[in-house]
């Protein structure tokens, strides 16, 4: 008897994780672009984290770059739209 639900199985791509000699962790898609859906695609030893999707910085309108000093940036389609500095001050690009 054949399984009738085989067409409902969703294939999920798992990005390749690479760690270099400096402790930088990067996740890449099948095209070799920085990419990760469930967390930052770039993490360095100092705590700097960046989110990427298909090689472009950003993850919608959420914070997509967290620096070790606490400052944050938001990218949409690879362009910075606003940020928060380490003192909590907000700034915006137009």
Please outline what is shown here.
The chain has 94 residues and is mostly beta strands.
Describe this structure in words.
This protein has 94 residues and is an all-beta fold. It is built from no helices and 10 strands. It has strands spanning 16-19, 25-28, 42-43, 49-50, 52-53, 56-57, 65-66, 72-76, 79-84, 90-92. It is flat. 20% of the residues are buried. The model has no long low-confidence stretch (mean pLDDT 79).
Q: Strand fraction band? A: 25-35%
- Low-pLDDT runs: none
Helix content: under 10%
**Domain tally:** 1
Shape by Cα distribution: flat
Q: Report the structural category.
A: mainly beta
- Give the spatial strand order of the biggest sheet: 1-2-3-4-7-8-9-10
- Rg, please? 17 Å
Count of individual beta strands: 10
How do the SSEs run, as a string of H and E?
EEEEEEEEEE
The N- to C-terminal Cα distance equals 61 Å
- Mean pLDDT across residues: 79
Helix tally equals: 0
- What's the story with the biggest beta sheet? 8 strands, antiparallel
């Amino acid at each position: 008897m054949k399984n009738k639900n085989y067409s409902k199985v969703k294939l999920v791509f798992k990005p390749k994780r690479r760690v270099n000699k400096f402790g930088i962790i990067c996740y890449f898609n099948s095209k070799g672009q920085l990419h990760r859906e469930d967390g930052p695609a770039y993490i360095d030893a100092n705590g700097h984290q960046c989110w990427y999707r298909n090689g472009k910085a950003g993850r919608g309108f959420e914070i997509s770059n967290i620096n070790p000093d606490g400052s944050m940036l938001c990218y949409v389609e690879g362009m910075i739209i606003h940020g928060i500095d380490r003192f909590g001050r907000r700034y915006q690009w137009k």
